[in-house]
Amino acid sequence: MRWLRPGLFVKRWLALMIVSLTVISVGIAYLLVVLFVQVEARVEGTPLWFEILTLGFLPVWLRVVLPMALGISLFIYALIGINRSLLGPLVANRTFAEWAYLVQTHRQLRQGIRVVAIGGGTGLPSALRAMKTETSNITAIVAVGDDGGSSGRLRRELGMLPPGDLRNNIVALARDEDLMTQVVNFRFNRGELEGHTFGNIFLAALVETQGSMDQAAMAAGRVLAIQGQVLPCTLDDIHLVADIRDKATGKVRHVEGESSITGTGGIIERLYLKPSSARALPAVMRSIINADLIVIGPGSLYTSIITNLLVNGMPEVIRTSKAVTVYVCNIATQPGETENYTVEDHILAIERHVGEGLVDIIIANNHYPDKNKGPNTIYVQPVPPVSPIYDRYQIIYTDLTDEQRPWRHDANKLRKALLSLNVPSIIDNMDEIHKGESSDYELQSVTDL
After folding, report:
1. pLDDT of residue 116
2. 244-248 long-range CB contacts below 8 Å, 24 or more apart?
3. Cβ atoms < 10 Å from Cβ of 433
4. 147-167 core/surface letters (b: 16 or more CB in 10 A; e: else)
5. Farthest CA pair distance, the chain
6. For a 10 Å CB count at each end of the chain, is N or C smaller?
7. Is the model more confident about 157 or about 98?
């Protein structure tokens, strides 16, 4: 019965098969009528063979019911048999009902809203986990400025984009995330591979065979059967450069490299990309244009989020998209990037780099538990009661904390917050508001970027 539930696109094909069999049956019945007339015309009485063939020895109602019952039974038996034969290699150890459930879930997720999540590091996977149970139309856009650890070594030795953030987000979209996390994030602790994760080596091999990091990420997604896709924000070899103010002297100095920027202990005044001409990947632009919901964050404010937004074409295409754009603010401050930052400071930092009005809604945490927080967790405080931020954005406060690691977002809580936005209705309202207004960038020009 599960196979007959709405949304699986099974009943329509069954109905077509039944109609086709009915048409064939009508043809056969007409042939029998013709034969009957011809036989009656040649001989007196009906021959025994024809009487048996047409069940003429039975009452009329049985001559109708018995063939129909037999035909339907054989049809169902044959249908089950052919499905077992064709789907056997795919079903593996699953029952027929379990396979039907998978098909149903797959269909439902394919019909979900189109979500684009922008960020990187360990923060963005929270947004992906939040939405992957609602839709498989997810595109994760990941920063590629990392120059430390295993990613940095592969970047220097192989000349490839850093794979670390891509790996984390590919794992987050996997159906069996627990197993994938164990395998993909396995870190070698001896030999020449010491310090490298299996996932980074895997992506490095795919880059060599597929030719580029975007193709490697998509190939990895197919191999791991993820729900959605993960893309680098750009294929250009970018490096982060920052103006950092020394806390003691107040002097501003130029620092290059993500690991160096976060390790200075100063205050980040401004972030740049080197080269400044780095352009967004065309597939990234298309995903944003076609999105229903754009989620920016959570993640490292400067080295993950603003890094993405500084890529040429990204702010313009986000503003052009009709999607609802949401900024998910971090729960805790991050040493080296956002010490003593409030929600307002996070927004003002984004505005300093890409201007006002990039997002429509801000979702921020308002729960600050002491349990499990540890000595290093400092919660991001809300926007002050009097602030111009309230005039520019809708701010939604809710509990987003994970019970075991309260400095991180709980995927279920974040999902509820995002779903409460009722995205399709918001999009319809925004269409009415902006009806007749001209945009700086039309679809064609954005695609050309």
Report:
1. 96
2. 244/268, 244/269, 245/269
3. 9
4. bbbbbbebbeeeebbbbbbbb
5. 120
6. N
7. 157
- What span, in angstroms and rounded, lies between the C-alpha atoms of 271 and 409? 26
Question: What is the distance between the alpha carbons of residues 417 and 328, in angstroms, rounded to a whole number?
Answer: 10
Structure tokens at 188: 């070698």
Two structure tokens written together for 250: 């107040």
Give the chain's mean pLDDT.
84
* pLDDT confidence of residue 71: 80
Mean pLDDT of 57-75: 79
Quick one: pLDDT at residue 367? Answer: 95
38-42's contacts with Cβ under 8 Å and 24+ in sequence apart are none
Q: Are strands 394-398 and 252-256 parallel, antiparallel or unpaired?
A: unpaired
Report whether 308 contacts 271 (CB < 8 A): no
CB 232 within 8 A of CB 142: yes
Which residue do the tokens 């931020």 mark? 389
List of long-range contacts for 348-352, beta carbons under 8 Å, 24+ apart: 348/389, 349/301, 349/302, 349/306, 350/301, 350/305, 350/306, 350/309, 352/270
The per-residue DSSP string of 56-95 comes to: TTS-HHHHHHHHHHHHHHHHHHHHHHHHHHHHHHHHTT--
Q: How far is 116 from 231, CA to CA, in rounded Å?
A: 10
> What is the sign, positive or negative, of the torsion defined by CA atoms of 96, 98, 101, 105?
negative
Q: Quick one: which of 242, 400, 366 has its CA closest to 307? A: 242
* CB within 8 Å of 245: residues ≥ 6 apart: 251, 252, 266, 267, 269
C-alpha to C-alpha distance for 424 and 271, rounded to whole angstroms: 35
Ranking 109-113, 186-190, 247-251, 435-439 by mean pLDDT, the lowest is 435-439
| pLDDT for the residue numbered 383 | 95
Please check the confidence at residue 247 and state whether its pLDDT lies above 50: yes
Mean pLDDT along residues 198-227: 90
Residues 373, 396: Cα–Cα separation, whole Å:
23
Which domains are assigned to the chain? 2-109 (no CATH), 113-240+274-448 (3.40.50.10680), 241-273 (no CATH)
Residue 141's pLDDT is 96
